């Protein structure tokens, strides 16, 4: 594959990435449906055109760091059965006037002419708001290049851009994408599914209850933060014990104090933890009470109050 290069440095501007062979990223149901809908359009592009409809050609993925934007891009390419080409920003960007724009146009022309999925991560580095006075004119020219190319992007190739800072993007750029998808931080159910599917958790036969505890204790963390945390505990366990026999104990030792800290003396937070543990994870009231260090009736009252509000 004769990939485009920077004419002065001869650095390759794109790299071919392996696509995800697994079931794909762990997403909430609404986001998963939107991603699946994009993929489902691919085999029926001609039927859409015949009906006078423009097939989706591009998607902008946004959200906090570590929520699976890159894995989602890989999953889309895999399901579309297309080569995934990833832009190398370090090679693309140049301090020489005009070179970055030429490199960007070279990348987009190549991807448009060779059916593929093109992935541009850290998209805000290229598509910042043009009214941002702190940026040099070169970045404003990049936005103009992107606007032109997005308008004429062919249906054969698919463009995926990702950003942690959607608010920094030029508004005209955002409007050019066919689909905008925001990936949120994982909720309790997604956190539990993620934890229980980690290879080190599966191979160690960690119990469902412990995965549930970790799901509760990792509230507010991203997918990558959770993977790093669990793998870090496993690594420490192997270094200390020479194996993973006490991994479950290490996970519980981290989760229980964290949950007690979250609940503390705040009845509202305690109710939120209790409801998540009971309604979403199926833990018994007695088990929740033991975890939080409170009485069984306290947990029963908290859950009953939640159920009463839900029924109103």
From TrEMBL:
Database matches in SMART domains: AAA
| Entry keyword annotation includes Nucleotide-binding | yes
Q: Which domain of life is it from?
A: Bacteria
Q: What InterPro entries does the annotation carry?
A: 26S_Proteasome_ATPase (IPR050221), AAA+_ATPase (IPR003593), ATPase_AAA_core (IPR003959), P-loop_NTPase (IPR027417), Tscrpt_reg_HTH_Crp-type_CS (IPR018335)
What name appears for this protein in its UniProt entry?
ATP-binding protein
Family in the record: Belongs to the AAA ATPase family.
Annotated GO MF terms? ATP binding
Q: Which organism is it from?
A: Streptomyces tricolor
TM spans (from-to): none
The answer on whether this UniProt entry bears the keyword Nucleotide-binding reads yes
Annotated keywords: ATP-binding, Nucleotide-binding
Q: Which residues form the AAA+ ATPase domain?
A: 55-187
């Amino acid at each position: 594959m004769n990939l485009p290069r920077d004419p002065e440095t001869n650095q390759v501007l794109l790299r071919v990435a392996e696509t995800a062979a697994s079931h794909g990223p762990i997403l909430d149901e609404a986001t998963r449906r939107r991603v699946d809908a994009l993929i489902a359009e691919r085999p029926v592009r001609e039927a859409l055109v015949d009906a006078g409809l423009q097939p989706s050609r591009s998607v902008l993925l946004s959200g906090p760091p570590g929520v699976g934007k890159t894995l989602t891009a890989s999953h889309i390419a895999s399901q579309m059965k297309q080569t995934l080409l990833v832009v190398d920003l370090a090679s693309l960007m140049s301090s020489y006037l005009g070179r970055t724009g030429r490199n960007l146009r070279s990348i987009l022309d190549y991807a448009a002419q060779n059916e593929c999925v093109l992935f541009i991560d850290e998209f805000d580095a290229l598509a910042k708001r043009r009214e941002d006075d702190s940026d040099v004119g070169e970045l404003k020219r990049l936005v103009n290049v992107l606007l032109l190319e997005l308008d004429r992007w062919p249906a054969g190739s698919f463009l995926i851009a990702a950003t942690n800072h959607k608010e920094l993007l030029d508004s005209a750029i955002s409007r050019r994408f066919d689909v905008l998808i925001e990936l949120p931080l994982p909720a309790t159910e997604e956190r539990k599914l993620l934890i229980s599917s980690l290879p080190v958790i599966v191979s160690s036969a960690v119990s469902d209850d412990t995965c549930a505890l970790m799901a509760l204790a990792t509230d507010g963390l991203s997918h990558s933060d959770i993977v790093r945390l669990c793998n870090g505990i496993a690594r420490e366990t192997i270094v200390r014990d020479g194996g993973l026999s006490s991994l479950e104990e290490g996970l519980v030792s981290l989760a229980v104090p964290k949950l007690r800290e979250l609940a503390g003396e705040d009845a509202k937070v305690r109710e939120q933890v209790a409801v998540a543990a009971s309604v979403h994870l199926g833990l018994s009231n007695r088990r929740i009470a033991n975890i939080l260090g409170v009485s069984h009736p306290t947990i029963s009252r908290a859950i009953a109050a939640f159920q009463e509000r839900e029924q109103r």
